[in-house]
């Protein structure tokens, strides 16, 4: 193996290759909570040519390659593998062009999402992909995981924002398809094979992202409702009344909201307690338009009894306050302790049943356990965080996963709504995909990466 590293040093240069033992801690893990792994070497090429050379060499020698972006994923997709090299794209961090006429942004895969967002704003536009990890996740990682976020209900997943890609295949072949046109039906849309596939089929090196007009006006409200049925009714009302102005519709069940609002000291903007809580955001281009539309929608919902109580932010500071508990997930370690996190998709009309069964099932099996439910209900996306205090750092992950994913499977849901499969969910893929689907995935993988060097052991079990 040392001969392999020496060969990589001779090919790429010692400034690109870091040997095992000297690899910084940050590159040994991602946000999945898995135990850090020392890779064979860390490769940090500066351009597509360097990525191509590295993959060509590793493919020829049968060495596994784990691509890394900002390492902010929670499914273990960027976790190093013993005996494999880590290929970081963080030096491919140049924004090449913002084209206001075509409404596109072309950049390297290593560009931090927030930097790309800022470049779009400076051009009078908006990159509508937005995540809580915007300050650390990279464009390449967002694409490779088909990331979601709080604005999916209006703008869609990352897939909706990718017009073109440059990708390096396992054998080092560079496929440059940096399309900037919204309409381009010339043959197969190859970029789709690399969006959301977690580096299994190729390494994204450059991208053309679609930009949107930036709505200058927003209106945010915080609602208290009796139950999930009322939330679903409110969602239908919001869609009908606000149309494309509806930007976000986030739900927090009492398990999450009460625990996190009290544990963080943020508190509640409403008096009294409610069965479910919702943050709703509208945005538009006419001054006062989004607020007027949201106010009218809420007034009708209050009169109909759909909403029990509501407050609308008067300014941007109050808007941030209404979002504060929903965005307090970074405080889990302090407020909750060791956690087992779930990102699942449930058919909307079974969401209430899913929450009740998961929370009650966990409470019955592990008395004193915490099961906190929240999510992007407009996208049928449920987040569940479980912690068994009595277990300390040795959380009963296998047993909890079997319970939760079993319920998801019964409800014809998905085990991964927006965070990929990686290592953590690999063994449960068959809960959401048929044998025929998985066989097709394997066939595509074998065709593009016959030696299986790209992100070995991830997504598809051996």
UniProtKB/TrEMBL annotation:
Lineage, uppermost ranks: Bacteria, Pseudomonadati, Pseudomonadota, Alphaproteobacteria, Rhodobacterales
Keyword entries, A-Z: FAD, Flavoprotein, Oxidoreductase
Signal peptide from the UniProt entry: none
Pfam families assigned: FAD-oxidase_C (PF02913), FAD_binding_4 (PF01565)
Domain FAD-binding PCMH-type: 35-214
UniProt name for this protein: FAD-binding oxidoreductase
Family the UniProt entry places it in: Belongs to the FAD-binding oxidoreductase/transferase type 4 family.
GO biological process: respiratory electron transport chain
Keyword Oxidoreductase (UniProt): yes
Cofactor: FAD
Coiled-coil features, chain-numbered ranges: none
GO molecular function, a single term: FAD binding
């Amino acid at each position: 193996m040392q001969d392999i590293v020496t060969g990589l040093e001779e090919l790429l240069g010692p400034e690109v290759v870091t040997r095992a033992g000297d690899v910084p801690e940050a590159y040994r893990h991602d946000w999945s909570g898995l135990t850090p792994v020392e890779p064979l070497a860390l490769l940090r090429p500066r351009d597509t040519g360097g990525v191509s050379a590295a993959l060509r060499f590793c493919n020829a020698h049968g060495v596994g390659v784990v691509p890394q972006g900002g390492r902010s994923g929670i499914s273990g997709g960027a976790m190093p593998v013993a005996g494999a090299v880590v290929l970081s794209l963080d030096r491919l961090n140049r924004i090449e062009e913002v084209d206001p006429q075509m409404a596109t942004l072309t950049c390297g895969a290593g560009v931090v999402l927030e930097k790309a967002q800022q470049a779009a704003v400076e051009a009078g536009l908006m990159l509508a992909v937005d995540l809580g990890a915007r300050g650390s996740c990279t464009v390449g990682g967002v694409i490779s995981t088909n990331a979601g976020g709080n604005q999916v209900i209006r703008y869609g997943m990352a897939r909706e924002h990718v017009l073109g890609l440059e990708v390096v295949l396992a054998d080092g072949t560079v496929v440059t398809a940096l399309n900037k046109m919204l309409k381009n039906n010339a043959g197969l849309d190859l970029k789709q094979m690399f969006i959301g596939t977690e580096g299994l089929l190729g390494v994204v090196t450059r991208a053309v992202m679609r930009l949107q007009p930036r709505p200058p006006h927003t209106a945010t409200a915080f609602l208290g409702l009796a139950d999930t049925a009322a939330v679903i009714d409110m969602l239908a009302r919001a869609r009908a009344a606000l149309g494309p102005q509806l930007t976000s519709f986030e739900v927090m069940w009492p398990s999450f909201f009460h625990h996190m609002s009290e544990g963080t000291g943020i508190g509640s903007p409403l008096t009294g307690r409610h069965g479910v809580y919702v943050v709703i955001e509208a945005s538009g281009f006419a001054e006062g338009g989004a607020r007027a539309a949201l106010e009218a929608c809420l007034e009708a919902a209050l009169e109909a009894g759909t909403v029990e109580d509501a407050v609308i932010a008067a300014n941007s500071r109050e808007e941030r306050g209404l979002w504060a508990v929903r965005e307090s997930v970074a405080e889990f370690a302090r407020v909750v302790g060791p956690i087992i996190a779930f990102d699942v998709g449930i058919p909307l009309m079974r969401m209430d049943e899913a929450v009740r069964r998961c929370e009650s099932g966990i409470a019955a099996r592990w008395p004193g356990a915490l099961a906190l439910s929240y999510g992007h209900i407009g996208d049928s996306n449920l987040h569940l965080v479980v912690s068994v205090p009595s277990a300390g750092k040795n959380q009963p992950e296998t047993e909890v996963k079997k319970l939760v994913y079993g319920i998801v499977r019964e409800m014809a849901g998905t085990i991964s709504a927006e965070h990929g499969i990686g290592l953590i969910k690999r063994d449960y893929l068959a809960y959401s995909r048929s044998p025929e689907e998985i066989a097709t995935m394997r066939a595509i993988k074998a065709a593009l990466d016959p030696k299986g060097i790209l992100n070995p052991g991830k997504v598809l079990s051996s």
